[in-house]
Amino acid sequence: MKRKINKTTWPFQVYVPCEFSDDILSNVDEEKAKDIEKWIFSNMQEDIRNRIFIIGNFRGVTYYFKNEKDYNWFLWRWI
To answer: Is residue 31 part of a domain?
Structure first.
C-alpha cells in the first residue's frame, strides 16, 4: 500500500539521498541522516508533528514541510 501526501498541506519537500548499508566503511551517508534527524529534533521542538513529515526508505529520506520558513531553514543548513 502506497501512502499519498496531501500536497496542499505539505507543499514543500526535500529529498536527501542516503545509502544505508551494513558495511562499516561506507556509513558516511547514514551518519549524515542521523545528524539531520538530531538537528531536526533539537531545533524544531515545538509542534514538530505539525511542521515536518519524514518518509525514509533504503535509498534516502524525503522531508515534507508545512511552512516555507522551516523549509528554507532546512535548505540553508543541509543542502
So the answer is: yes
Q: What is the residue range of 55's domain?
A: 12-78
pTM for the model: 0.81
Number of domain units in the chain:
1
Q: What is the C-alpha separation between 13 and 54, in angstroms, rounded?
A: 10
DSSP secondary structure code for residue 17 in this structure:
E
7 part of a folded domain: no
Summary count for the chain: helices (H), strands (E): 2, 3
Residue identified by cell 533504503 is 58
- Rounded Cα distance, 53 and 10, in Å: 8
Q: What is the pLDDT of residue 65?
A: 95
